[in-house]
Amino acid sequence: xxxxxxxxxxxxxxxxxxxxxxxxxxxxxxxxxxxxxxxxxxxxxxxxxxxxxxxxxxxxxxxxxxxxxxxxxxxxxxxxxxxxx
Length: 85
Hints:
With 85 residues, this protein is α+β, with helices and mostly antiparallel strands. The chain has helices at 14-21, 26-38, 53-62; strands at 66-70, 77-81.
């Protein structure tokens, strides 16, 4: 049995609309982009970019025994456990 599909809409500015209109199968592109983005959501803030006060407190406690460092190769920030050094 095929799953029922739902239609969603969202607003874009004129410049983005021009780019999207050039994509041959824009529905598939948008679906793929959303699925890809969902795989990269921060597990703490759930993609909001903001920690609640309680989350911030937990992170502060976590950082007592961990640090945030910058990768020399890719320049991205990552957590390092101080117990494994």
